[in-house]
Design brief:
single chain; about 250 residues; five-stranded mixed beta sheet; 9 helices; about 35% helix; about 20% strand
């Protein structure tokens, strides 16, 4: 953990966590890392300008879709998602809602695979609000993290035979499965989700998939020969999309 300073109370709490194994460092507020960063690979050293862009609401002004409205909440979520993908391994996309990240897909060779990877996390996050998930009849005394894990596996549903026996043992009554039809119907209620991409969307398939997850707002650098097709796809789904003009590749 790195921070400019710690109160004595906070430091004592941190020292008590994880059996005292946290590495706690203090760093000066005025530290400047320099404009150039370096990577060494098999004896070769590469240098590049450090990605020091500060993402603000000004990056969200170039709205290119028919829908031009980005309210304060949408701008906030697009900024949060963009900051996240700035620091994750490319290719990278991030989904945000209500000021928090709800899905990140990074390090994939295909951008649509990033969207699908992050999208599974978004779907799981949203489906945790499904009445059947909220009503799971856990045995008395179940640990909080065990309940969290059990809810996620209930949503995913792809148990091995051995895993299912252990999962069912956590309940007073074995729950009815959450069917694909029930999941899909509930996901139709998702809306207002924001997605940001660290580079342009090369094809509309990413937008098609994002539409299944309640995405209403999109941020991407733009600059693809397919920009017109991507904009048209957003228009078809009633999304507002802005071009930030800033690539955020991180390797």
């Amino acid at each position: 953990i790195v921070a400019p300073s710690y109160t004595s109370e906070a430091l004592e709490i941190l020292k008590s966590k994880k059996g005292g194994n946290f590495i706690i460092l203090e760093a000066p507020l005025d530290y400047h890392p320099g404009d150039i960063e370096y990577r060494e690979v098999y004896g070769m050293t590469f240098s590049q300008k450090r990605n020091d862009v500060v993402i603000t609401k000004d990056h969200m002004k170039d709205v290119v879709t028919t829908i031009k409205t980005l309210d304060d909440g949408a701008v906030r979520d697009l900024i949060v998602a963009s900051i996240c993908v700035k620091y994750t391994q490319s290719n990278s996309v991030g989904f945000a809602k209500d000021g928090m990240m709800v899905g990140v897909g990074a390090g994939q060779q295909s951008r649509v695979d990033c969207v699908k990877l992050a999208g599974r996390k978004v779907a799981t996050w949203y489906l945790r609000q499904h009445p059947k998930v909220l009503g799971l009849p856990f045995r008395q005394g179940s640990k909080r993290q065990d309940r969290v894990n059990a809810r996620v596996r209930y949503i995913e549903g792809d148990f091995t035979a051995e895993e299912k026996v252990r999962w069912e043992s956590q309940f007073d009554v074995v729950p009815e499965p959450l069917t694909e039809a029930e999941k899909n119907e509930f996901l139709k209620g998702s809306s207002g989700v924001a997605i940001s991409s660290d580079a342009f969307f090369p094809f509309r398939d990413s937008i098609d998939h994002a539409s299944k997850l309640g995405v209403s707002f999109v941020a991407q650098p733009g600059g693809s020969v397919q920009d017109k097709q991507i904009t048209e796809a957003c228009d078809e789904y009633g999304m507002a999309m802005c071009f930030t003009g800033t690539r955020l590749f991180h390797h």
